[in-house]
Design a protein that fits this description.
The complex is a heterodimer of chains A (about 290) and B (about 170).
Chain A (H helix, E strand, L loop, with lengths): L6 E4 L3 H11 L3 E4 L5 H6 L7 E4 L9 E4 L2 E5 L4 H6 L1 H6 L1 H6 L6 H4 L4 H7 L5 H8 L3 E6 L3 E6 H4 E3 L2 E2 L6 E8 L5 E8 L9 E10 L2 E10 L6 E2 L1 H7 L6 H14 L10 H29 L1
Parallel strand pairs in A: 1-3, 2-3
Antiparallel strand pairs in A: 4-5, 5-10, 6-7, 6-10, 8-9, 11-12, 12-13, 13-14
Helix pairs in contact in A: 10-11, 11-12
Chain B lengths: L5 E8 L2 E8 L4 H8 L18 E4 L2 E4 L12 E3 L1 H7 L3 H9 L9 H13 L6 H7 L11 H16 L6
Parallel strand pairs in B: 1-5
Antiparallel strand pairs in B: 1-2, 3-4, 3-5
Helix pairs in contact in B: 3-6, 4-6
Classes of the chains: A alpha+beta (about 290), B alpha+beta (about 170).
């Protein structure tokens, strides 16, 4: 189908975009990469009065190292994140996840910030920023800049802490610490499809023992979700077969997957448990490799 | 809001400068097909799944149906017509014929546009990697095997020739 009628403004500055958002609020939609917004317009699932095109706002672009955090601008395209040496070196979890994000033509256009602003429950980047304990920066004409921890940002199905007059401007993501290991895995029917189940793990390991972990799950709950029970089950332990099983067992108390045509609650929980065992085994192998190289 | 809001745009399409007044809600492929008469870019699903509308925007392949024509203002667009005329993928086109990599041909322009990006910098790739690269383009006739054959053969030849094309 064809998109419904709307007005269109190509923002010339962040201030102009914020002023328009402040004025029009929920009746406006921000057009970034458009890889999710345009389909909903073409299918008439969404009928905004105004599209605010932010694609020419260079202030929102770019990826850079800022102290012990990596700044990824909201307009950084997936392909830029995928090819970034800063991301490869400091955010290996995101580098590992990126090939799973959609397809070549979509990665050439889709943006990091757009993925976080939409908060699709099956998307990879929301789970990664949650696992990495990132800070998301929101801006508005009325309130200036405010920072929201990823823990407090994802509120529900396509629902975030971003207010209608706010623009997501960047993500600040702590760099990988020495001795930490990350693992990203997902299950999809075909490459590039939305995940049926997926994990983004960030694990701190000292002398072979888990000292802290953030185990993010996506593709099954209404939002990316940290599994606190599973993390507690491996805390202070070595990553062996027993602790892997303990984590998978505890996961049943952390997740309550949504049932839909892609799979039942039970099947999705099972898949997340399978991924948990695989990811922790992979983490153990990576930690051993790290220890060997040190 | 007016009934049919329009905007003037000027862009380069297949090397030629064009200026038009377009509906702001018109996507790039409708603009190419309806306003410019370039019907090589196909519209399949019109929501970014099938890849039949793939075109090149400022050097990279994108979904033409997921971009508004007004967003291409000032940009450089290459469609299958331009790709064909430039001879950039003449070797791939010949291999598509030789390998029977198309039947109805609906997906072929998009397949060529996407494969062109893979072939532009010829590096050895496994069949699995080629399949992954093409995974955003649907073909409902061939079962993909012949398409992967054609791309793999062309890539091998380009790698042997030491990069470049033509």
């Amino acid at each position: 189908m064809k998109a419904p009628r709307f007005s269109y403004v190509r923002a010339r500055s962040v201030e102009q975009a914020l002023a328009l958002l402040g004025e029009h609020g929920e009746e406006a939609r921000v057009l970034a990469g458009g890889q999710s917004l345009m389909p909903t317009l073409n299918m008439r699932l969404s009928q905004p009065k105004l599209l605010i095109d932010i694609n020419r706002l260079d202030a929102l672009a770019g990826i850079s190292l800022a102290g012990d955090r990596v700044r990824i601008g909201a307009l950084a395209r997936h392909v830029e994140v995928a090819n970034s040496t800063v991301v490869a070196e400091h955010l290996p979890l995101i580098a590992e996840a990126m090939p799973h994000v959609a397809h070549v033509a979509v990665r050439n256009r889709g943006t990091f910030g757009g993925s976080l602003a939409l908060a699709d429950p099956a998307a990879e980047m929301p789970a990664c920023v949650l696992a990495l304990d990132a800070t998301l920066v929101l801006a508005s004409a009325a309130g200036g800049r405010r920072e929201v921890a990823a823990d407090d940002y994802f509120l529900g199905l396509y629902e975030t802490a971003r207010r209608p007059d706010e623009l997501l401007v960047e993500a600040l993501i702590p760099v990988k610490r020495t001795g930490s290991v990350s693992v990203f895995l997902e299950l999809a029917r075909r490459h590039g499809d939305f995940a049926l189940a997926g994990v983004a793990f960030q694990l701190a390991i000292e002398a072979g023992v888990m000292t802290g972990s953030r185990l993010a799950y996506f593709g099954s709950e209404d939002r990316p979700t940290l599994a606190r029970g599973a993390a507690a089950a491996i805390q202070g332990r070595r990553l062996d077969r027993d602790s892997r099983e303990a984590a998978a067992f505890a996961l049943a108390g952390d997740l309550k997957p949504m049932s839909n045509a892609q799979g039942s609650t039970r099947m999705r929980l099972h898949l997340q448990q399978v991924l948990t065992r695989r990811a922790l085994a992979l983490a153990e192998a990576r930690a051993t490799e790290l220890a060997g190289a040190a | 809001m007016t009934d049919a809001e329009t905007m003037e745009i000027a862009l380069t399409v297949n090397g030629e400068r064009v200026s038009r007044t377009v509906l702001v809600r018109r996507h790039l492929v409708d603009f190419l097909r309806i306003d410019l008469g370039l019907t090589g870019s196909h519209l399949g699903c019109e929501h970014g799944v099938c890849g039949a509308c793939s075109v090149r925007l400022d050097g990279v392949v994108v979904r033409g149906c997921l971009l508004l024509a007004v967003q291409a203002d000032g940009c450089d667009v290459v469609t299958i017509e331009g790709l064909d005329q430039s001879g950039e993928v003449a070797d791939l086109q010949q291999t598509f014929v030789a390998r029977n990599a198309l039947q109805c041909g609906f997906c072929t322009p998009g397949m060529l546009m996407t494969a062109a990006e893979l072939l532009a910098d010829p590096q050895p790739k496994t069949r699995e990697e080629i399949r992954t690269f093409l995974s955003g383009n649907y073909c409902r006739c061939t079962g993909y095997h012949a398409i992967v054959d054609a791309v793999a053969t062309t890539l091998d030849e380009r790698v042997k020739r030491g990069g470049g094309h033509g």
